[in-house]
Design a protein that fits this description.
Oligomer: single chain
Strand order of the largest sheet: 5-4-3-7-6
Shape: elongated
Largest sheet: 5 strands, mixed
Order of helices and strands: EHHEEEEHEE
Helix content: 25-40%
CATH superfamily of the largest domain: Transcription elongation factor, GreA/GreB, N-terminal domain
Mean pLDDT: 91
Distance between the termini: 35 Å
Strand content: 25-35%
Number of domains: 2
Low-confidence stretches: none
CATH class of the largest domain: Mainly Alpha
CATH architecture of the largest domain: Orthogonal Bundle
Structural class: alpha/beta
Length: 153
């Protein structure tokens, strides 16, 4: 079993707990009923509904196991008001394409389209520990990109 810490904000921890609760109390019984109903149709060897329900169950149980492992290894990170970038920091960076604003979160909470990037992503990892005014180089598939840290909050 992986014992790697899962860094979460307090909000992220609550989201994972809520999702786990929903999957266990609502989705698991729904899928079990679906499997039961499909079995009632007779032979399961060529029953597409039964196979689909079993696949859904497999996915669901995998997600439940993942969430349980993440919660077991969760370390809640409080927002840091320091001047260095860390998990929970909101950072404004400037590159050749203008400015971007990100909140650095653990990988379990990452949602780049919502402005939350993982501390393990190329940009997040490059920003960790940096201060306002620092220049950082990010190795991207298209080549190196240089950013300047505009602010850390």
């Amino acid at each position: 079993m992986n014992n790697k810490p899962v860094y979460l904000t307090a909000e992220g921890l609550e989201k994972l707990k809520s999702e786990l609760q929903h999957l266990i109390t609502s989705e698991r019984p729904r899928v079990a009923a679906r499997i039961h109903d499909a079995k009632m149709d007779g032979d399961t060897t060529e029953n597409a509904e039964y196979e689909d329900a079993k696949q859904e169950q497999s996915f669901l149980e995998g997600r439940i196991a993942t969430l349980e492992a993440q919660l077991k290894n969760a370390q809640v990170i409080a927002h840091s008001n320091g001047d260095r970038v860390g998990i929970g920091s909101t950072v404004v960076i400037r590159g050749t394409d203008g400015e971007d604003r990100f909140t650095i979160v653990g990988s379990a909470e990452a949602a780049p389209r919502e402005g939350r990037i993982s501390n393990e992503s190329p940009v997040g990892a490059a920003l960790m520990g940096r201060r306002k005014g620092d220049k950082v180089t990010v190795l991207a598939p298209a080549g190196s990109i240089v950013y300047t840290v505009v602010s850390v909050g």
